[in-house]
Specification:
By secondary structure, this protein is α+β, with helices and mostly antiparallel strands. The chain has one domain. The chain is 36% helix and 18% strand. The chain contains 6 helices and 7 strands; from the N terminus they run ααββαββααββαβ. The strands form 2 sheets. Strands 6-5-4-3-7 form a 5-stranded mixed sheet. The chain has a two-stranded antiparallel ribbon with strand order 1-2. A hairpin with a 4-residue loop joins strand 3 and strand 4. Helix 3 crosses helix 5. The radius of gyration is 26 Å and the shape is elongated.
């Protein structure tokens, strides 16, 4: 065998070896990507979507309000078995989580499946404060009707299943937002248990988000001082 042929064979063997090593490395990289740890956001969302259980839970037929099949521009109650706490804050959180995760079908949803309830507070005057993740706005179909129905489904569900909540305040990531998704004014409070939501009391449904600064009071619920203030007033809170 000539020296040139031997050299060629050795080069070919080296190339094949390098190719096999590279292929194995690529396979390992793909496997690492598949088994990569979840991001903090994914982990938080998984935790938020876990069913909430308390020692006082009793399974009842809860009335949850989703989009109607016969009249998509309205809501209808659906009775589902749901373990609910005797504590009104825990109970409210269980109900809102069920609204997000247990819709009978995609066409019946009022709240985006990507959204999470970050916290719920109940003040002595009967004001329930629901603090949602950013997805309640970013994943919400924009339009006054869809935004009204979203808030209405929360308000009617709480009114049908929780005693003592008179009005509802919506926060997004701990802060007061101008609108839900560009149309429904969130500055004021929404009555709980009523059949219509045309706009928060103290505000009106806007066709577009206001470009000016809000004139009403702003709740900065994500600041430690604001949260401490709620606790000092005897409010209950769940994170």
């Amino acid at each position: 065998m000539s020296k040139g042929l031997k050299t060629t064979i050795l080069v070919l063997i080296a190339l094949v070896t390098i190719g096999l090593v590279t292929l194995q490395g690529m396979r390992q990289a793909v496997e690492r990507l598949r088994s990569a740890p979840r991001t903090d956001e994914q982990a938080r969302r998984d935790v938020m979507q876990q069913p909430i259980s308390t020692p006082t839970d009793v399974e009842v037929k809860a009335q949850l309000y989703w989009l109607s099949t016969s009249a998509p521009a309205s809501l209808e109650p659906i009775a589902i078995p749901l373990p609910l706490s005797a504590d009104p804050v825990e109970r409210s959180k269980q109900l809102i989580n069920a609204l997000i995760t247990r819709a009978p079908g995609p066409e019946r949803r009022t709240l985006p499946p990507e959204a999470s309830l970050l916290a719920f507070y109940l003040q002595p005057d009967g004001t329930g404060i629901a603090d949602f993740s950013d997805e309640i706005s970013s994943a919400m179909p924009s339009g006054i009707m869809s935004e009204q129905l979203a808030v209405q489904s929360i308000a009617q569900t709480l009114g049908a299943n929780v005693n003592g909540i008179r009005q509802l305040k919506i926060l997004i990531h701990g802060q007061e937002a101008e609108t839900l998704a560009g149309h429904l004014d969130l500055h004021g409070m929404f009555p709980v248990g009523l059949t219509g939501v045309s706009g928060a009391t103290g505000g009106a449904a806007a066709s577009t988000a206001s470009a000016s600064s809000p004139t009403g009071s702003s709740l900065q619920m994500n600041s430690p001082s604001a949260l401490n203030g709620i606790s000092a007033q005897g409010n209950s809170a769940v994170h």
